[in-house]
Structures are given as C-alpha cells and as structure tokens.
C-alpha cells in the first residue's frame, strides 16, 4: 500500500513545581505534546543551524531546551512512552519492552507467557484499519491475539492498558477536560491507563501496513497523525477513531508521534564520520519541521497558541549515530551461549534474558562471560547490581529480566540487513533524546544538566493546574521525580 500523506512529531509538555495545585493555578488551557521518535539531543542544534527559520528553530526561541534529557532504560518505544505519560520507569510500571515476559504472573497453562504488544495484536496488520469495529475503544485489537493473565482463578485476555501498573496523565486530566492521542499501533491503547478511561479519542492506524523501510511511505503514514492533530485543534474527529466520547472542542491534552525520522535513521542513518544528515534523513526532518509549523499555525488561527504549552520530547534515540560503528550480531546466539534454558530473549541494541529457572543465574552469567567476544558484550547486569541500578528484583517481580546484556556501542543484535541502527538499549545514542517546551510567553533558556523524560508527566499536570501527586509514579516514587527545571 502506498499512502500519499504526511508525517508527525510527538511532543511532550513540561512545567512547574510539585506543590499542591488547584484548577485556578493553571497557566495553560491546553498541552500539546509530540515525540519525534529517534531524534537525538545532538540532532537539534544541527537542524536549527541548517534551518534557522523552521518551526523547531522558532519554537526554541520562546522555549526551554533540555540538552541532557534521557529517556527510559531500556529505551524501547513502549517504556519510552510510559516514561512520558506516567513518569514511571520499567521497575515501577512493569513495562520493559513491547516484547516482554510474564513468568508465573501469567499462569494460564494453555497460553504463552510472553507479553507482546505490537502489530501482532491487530486483526490484520497488513491494513491500516482491519477491525470490524474500528471506532469502538480497543476495537482495533483482536482479543484472540492478546496475552492472558490469571485473575481470581480465571484466565482473561489482557489488553495493553491493563498491563500497565501505574496511572497516566490522560487518566488524571480526563475528568477535567477532553484528551486525545495517536501512535503507530493499536497496542498504544496502553496510554489510556489501567482504568481504560484516559482517552476521549484514540487514533491508531497500523504502521506495518506500509513499507517501514521507505521514508516516502512513512511520511505518508505520519501525515495521518498530523491531520489528526489539525482535526483535534478544529474540534473534529478523524474517521476510524476509537471514540469514548465525541470531541466538543480542542482537547485539554493531546499528542502523538512522528515515525519518519526513526525510519530514516534505521534505513539510511547519518553520513560516516561527519554524522551529518543523509538526504533521506533531511527529507524526514523537513517533513516533521513543516508539520510542527502547521500545528502552530492552526493553534494561532484558533487564538489558543498563547494558552497552549507545546512539548517535543522523543521516546527514544537510535544507536549508533556514527554508522561506522554499526555491527550486526546474530541474536540467536545469545540463548545458546547462556548454556541454560532461557524462556525468552528480547534483543535490539540491548538483550534482556528471562531464565526458565532462576537458580541457573550463575551458570548463565558464566556462559555469557565466555561469549563476550562473540556477542560483543560490554557489560552483563544481574543480581544485586541489577537491583542497585534500579531495574528491580526478578525474584520478586515476574516482569523484571534476570539478566541485561549491554553490547559494545554500535552493536545491534539482529540478522536483518534492512537496518543500520536500532533503539531499545542503554547507550547515550539510544537514550539522550531531543526535548524542549515552548510557548510565546517563555524566554529562551538552555539547560545542560541531566533530566529525565519521566519529569514530563508531572510537568504537564502542573502546567494544567492539576496536582502531580495524582500520578502513582509521584505518589509512590519518593522525592526523585520532580518537574522539569525552569518552571
């Protein structure tokens, strides 16, 4: 299928302190957040230099730029979006990857314990819309394709939002105003939160229905997201939208993502040694920049630009930036190297291992140590160190992997020859993402220190005059989750 459409960017809105806030404290009436998937922090100054009159350059003139922003660890799209909309890291949210594992928690004997939430959950992922009921909430997901969980002695189908252990900004905002979100698979239904009620409208065309190595086709796909943004600003609802309630105006909170940059990075990347943008990556960035300009123009036309906080904050980066570092290592070599029964290996520019028997941990680590050269292993994280680094305790939490393998920079565990970069890992290339907030009332500022994209969620609530403590991640996460600096 060839789509003649356009692309989108996912941004995220950031703001003020964590003191108790009432509705009268709201500085903004709307938050629009976008993720430009794949866009590194290092890409932004290069792009602004190349396009000083573009939309991104314009937004930065009245905004805060966070050069040290880090997304989730690991940096897969699923935990990346959870970081942004809930403020929770994987150990708290239970979301490690779109391809995770459930162990004993998912104790339905006739069902796999793998917990996969990607295009395989669709009725037919070769089509943009394959559901018999595309406008029903969750209607684009085939229940027969879902993982199952044992609940009160009964095996039930587990929708993506039911897998999430913490609430989201959409759930907090929805009682106070309408909400909307768009992303690349129906499985991003997850952002609704555990209640399933966080979105007024959700728009989830399937990206796998187009050629995901073709920048032109992905720009066409992304245009669907852009048109959804423009429709929402106009108070309209695109066809095939999952509707919990019809929009009555501009949503209080809305957002989505752009895929074009990520696809261009994976398929074409950067110029060797200089890491300048390739022509294909420039095409993708031009599309995203122009699309953000259309969103700004639409907000201005509705006289709500000054009332809207715009956030652009990527879910993930891409490894490697320098294509000369790229190296493929067959992911199928990992489990045999461990020398024990491995229930699941999830691998990109990181490898997560869930062992069938945790008593085999020492033997598995010893086997991997012997295979360091073959697997290009930089680090093996397990045991006390896994817990000390904040990844959780696999002995207590069935979602936590028993072992995390960190490969050398540039190594991707894959047999595919269709890509030269990937995300999901712990490297700076995958985690140091573009992140900025903008509004005409803000004065240009740059923050070089480290911040987390998890800080976006409480910032958004504060910006809208809501209490960040309504987030489970803030309520139960201690004092280490604050709003973004500058607010």
Structure description:
- The chain is an alpha/beta fold and 487 residues long.
- It folds into 2 domains: 10-322 and 426-480, Alkaline Phosphatase, subunit A; 327-413.
- Helix content is 26%, strand content 19%.
- It has helices at residues 43-50, 55-61, 77-86, 90-93, 160-163, 169-173, 215-233, 260-267, 279-301, 334-338, 361-370, 372-375, 383-388, 428-431, 456-463, 472-475, and strands at residues 10-11, 30-36, 63-70, 99-101, 114-116, 148-151, 154-157, 179-182, 201-203, 242-243, 253-258, 308-313, 327-329, 342-347, 351-355, 377-382, 403-407, 411-413, 435-438, 445-452.
- The N and C termini lie far apart (45 Å).
CATH fold category name of the largest domain? Alkaline Phosphatase, subunit A
CATH architecture of the largest domain: 3-Layer(aba) Sandwich
Uncertain segments: 1-24
Biggest beta-sheet profile: 6 strands, mixed
Strand order of the largest sheet: 1-2-11-8-9-10
Please write the CATH class name of the largest domain.
Alpha Beta
Give the C-alpha Rg. 21 Å
Q: Can you give the helix content as a percent range?
A: 25-40%
Number of helices: 16
Shape: globular
Give the CATH superfamily of the largest domain: Alkaline Phosphatase, subunit A
What is the strand content? 15-25%
The strand count comes to: 20
- First-residue to last-residue Cα separation: 45 Å
- Average pLDDT confidence is 91
């Amino acid at each position: 299928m060839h789509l003649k459409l356009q692309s989108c960017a996912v941004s995220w809105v950031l703001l003020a302190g964590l003191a108790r806030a009432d509705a009268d404290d709201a500085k903004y009436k709307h938050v629009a957040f976008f993720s430009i998937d794949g866009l590194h922090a290092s890409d932004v100054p290069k792009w602004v230099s190349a396009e000083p009159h573009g939309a991104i350059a314009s937004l930065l003139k009245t905004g805060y730029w966070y050069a040290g922003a880090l997304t989730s660890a690991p940096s897969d799209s699923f935990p990346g979006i959870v970081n942004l909309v809930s403020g929770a890291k994987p150990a708290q949210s239970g979301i490690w990857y779109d391809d995770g594992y459930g162990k004993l928690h998912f104790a339905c004997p006739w069902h796999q314990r793998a917990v996969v939430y990607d295009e395989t959950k669709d009725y037919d992922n070769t089509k943009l819309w394959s559901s018999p009921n595309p406008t029903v909430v969750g209607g684009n997901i085939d229940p027969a394709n879902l993982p199952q969980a044992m609940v009160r002695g009964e095996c039930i189908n587990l929708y993506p939002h039911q897998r999430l252990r913490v609430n989201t900004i959409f759930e907090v905002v929805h009682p106070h105003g309408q909400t909307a979100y768009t992303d690349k698979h129906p499985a991003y239904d997850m952002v609704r939160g555990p209640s399933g009620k966080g979105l007024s409208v959700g728009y989830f065309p399937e990206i796998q229905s187009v050629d995901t190595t073709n920048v032109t086709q992905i720009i066409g796909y992304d245009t669907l997201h852009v048109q959804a943004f423009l429709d929402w600003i106009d108070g309209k609802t695109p066809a095939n939208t999952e509707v919990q309630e019809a929009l009555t105006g501009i949503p209080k909170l809305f957002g989505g993502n752009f895929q074009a940059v990520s696809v261009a990075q994976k398929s074409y990347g950067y110029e060797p040694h200089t890491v300048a943008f390739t022509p294909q990556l420039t095409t993708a960035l031009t599309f995203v920049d122009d699309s953000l300009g259309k969103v700004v123009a639409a907000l201005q036309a509705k006289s709500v630009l000054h009332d809207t906080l715009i956030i652009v904050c990527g879910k993930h980066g891409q490894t490697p930036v320098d294509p000369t570092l790229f190296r493929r290592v067959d992911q199928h070599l990992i489990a045999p190297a461990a020398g024990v029964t491995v229930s699941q290996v999830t691998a990109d520019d990181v490898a997560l291992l869930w062992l069938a028997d945790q008593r085999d941990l020492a033997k598995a680590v010893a086997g991997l140590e012997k295979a360091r050269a073959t697997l290009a292993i930089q680090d093996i994280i397990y045991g006390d160190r896994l817990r000390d680094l904040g990844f959780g305790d696999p002995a207590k939490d069935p979602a936590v992997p028993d072992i995390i393998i960190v490969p050398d920079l540039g190594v991707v565990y894959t047999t595919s020859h269709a890509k030269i970069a990937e995300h999901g890992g712990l490297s700076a290339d995958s985690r140091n993402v573009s992140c900025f907030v903008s509004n005409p009332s803000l004065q240009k500022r740059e923050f070089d220190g480290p911040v987390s994209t998890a800080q976006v969620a409480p910032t958004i609530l504060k910006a809208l005059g809501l209490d960040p403590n309504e987030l489970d991640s803030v309520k139960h996460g201690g004092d280490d989750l604050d709003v973004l600096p500058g607010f």
